[in-house]
Amino acid sequence: MLKIKSPKDFWAGLMFLGVGLFFTIWAVANYQMGSAVRMGPAYFPTVLGGLLAVLGLIVLAGSLAFHGPKVPALHFRPLLFVLTSCLAFGYLMKPLGLVLATVAMVFLAALGGHEFRWKEVTLLAVALVVFSVLVFVKGLTLPFPLWPDRFS
User: CA separation (Å) from 146 to 18, 108, 109, 137?
Assistant: First the structure.
């Protein structure tokens, strides 16, 4: 009987295959393909999506074996918290500023893990805030608000 020898490779291959097929189908359905000589807007996403799907098939096939451990269940809690933290960052950036939105994102994402330590998460949040301010606001001079309007 065919089993999965590497659950991580199995899920990664499935994800690559799904994302590659999605973008290939989406590009072909919504844009003109063109040709290799006169590339249309769908050409590049179609090629990249196709390559990603092929890579997904290779990784997926490499994860299969005739004997191996059972595939573990997909854990939705980390996925939900990381997705929520990204959405929260996007929505909180304008009203709260870069500093508070980044702190909220780090703490929300950390809640999805099986271990939550206040000290480690706080240090990570501070480091990420300092890095973000130095790189994006000071280095790249992007016009991100640092704090809410009422604090500045």
Answer: 38, 19, 21, 8
